[in-house]
Amino acid sequence: MDTRFLDSLIAVAEEGSIAGAARAQLITAAAVSQRIQALEREFKCKLFSRAGNTVQPTDACLTIIPKAKSLVREARDLIEIVQDSGLNGTLRIGANSTSLTAFIPATLKSIRASVPEAKFHITPGNSIDLYRSLINGDIDAAIMVMPPSAIPKSLRYWVLRDEPLALLHHKSIKGTLTDILDNKPYIRYDPSCWGGQMPELFMVEKGMTKNTIFDLDSLEAIAQLVSEEVGVSMVPIWAGLELFDETITTLPIPDKKYHRKMVLMSAYHPRQPRLLELFMKHLGELDSVDLQKDL
C-alpha cells in the first residue's frame, strides 16, 4: 500500500473536500480522487459520502484514519532515518502565538545564516493542542506554556522563560492594583487556556472583583486593547510586551506562585536529535530567552 494514498485520505478527511485536499497536497483533484478510489477498492468499502460541495468520512473511514496517520508518520520516520546524515529530514516544531512572533523568526534567521541546509516546519497552535500533538507524535517539539499536570516520562523540557504575572493598564490610569481592578473594565486572559489560569487563580485567591468585558487567548490583542484604553488586564510579562512600553504601565506581581513558564518540550528520544540540538542552540542565544537545562 502506498502511504501517499493514505496521506491523501487523511487530507480529504481534514479538509472536508477533494479540492481542499488537492490544494493542501499540491496535486490535482483528479489525482486525489484516484487515490481515494484505489483505497476503496483495496479496503472494499466506501470511505466518503458526498454532502453538497463537501465530503464526509464514513464510519469505516473514521476507523481507518488513526492507524493511517500512524503508518504515514512511521513511513516518514523510516525515510528520514535511512537518509540521515544528522541534519537531513525536517524538524516539526509547534509554537504558541507569542512564541511564533517572539522566538521563531529570529531563531530561524540565525540558523539559516549558519546552517542553510537545515529544514524546519512550524505549526502554530495553542499550548493545549500542541501538547496533544507532541504526545501523539505529530510534531517533534513545541514552544508552549508549561502544562499544569505531570509530564509523561516520554517527554522532556527546557524552561525558556519564567514570566511574572503583572497588571497592565494605560499610562493615563492612576491608583493601586485593587483600585484599578475594582473600577476599570477588565480584559480577561482566557482562563480555559493554561496561561490564563494563573491570573484567574490570583484574582480568586486575593478575593478581587473585576468587571470582565472580554475573554481573549491572545496576549498581543489584550495589550493592544489596553494601549487603546479599552480596559485593563492581568497577564504574564511575555517577550514582546516591551513593544507597548510607550502607552502601557506594567505592575509586576512578585509572588512566583503566579508565574507562567514557557518551555521547549520534545520527545525524550527525538527523531531528529541533531536538528533539535541545532534549534535549541540558536533559540538559547536570543536575548529574550534564559534557557535552563532539561528537566
TrEMBL record:
InterPro entries recorded: LysR_HTH_N, LysR_subst-bd, WH-like_DNA-bd_sf, WH_DNA-bd_sf
Keyword Transcription regulation: yes
Alphabetical keyword list: DNA-binding, Transcription, Transcription regulation
Superkingdom in the source lineage: Bacteria
Gene3D superfamilies named among the record's database cross-references: Periplasmic binding protein-like II, Winged helix-like DNA-binding domain superfamily/Winged helix DNA-binding domain
GO MF annotation terms: DNA-binding transcription factor activity; transcription cis-regulatory region binding
Residue ranges occupied by any HTH lysR-type domain in the UniProt entry: 1-58
Family the UniProt entry places it in: Belongs to the LysR transcriptional regulatory family.
Listed name of the protein: Transcriptional regulator
Protein's organism: Shewanella psychrophila
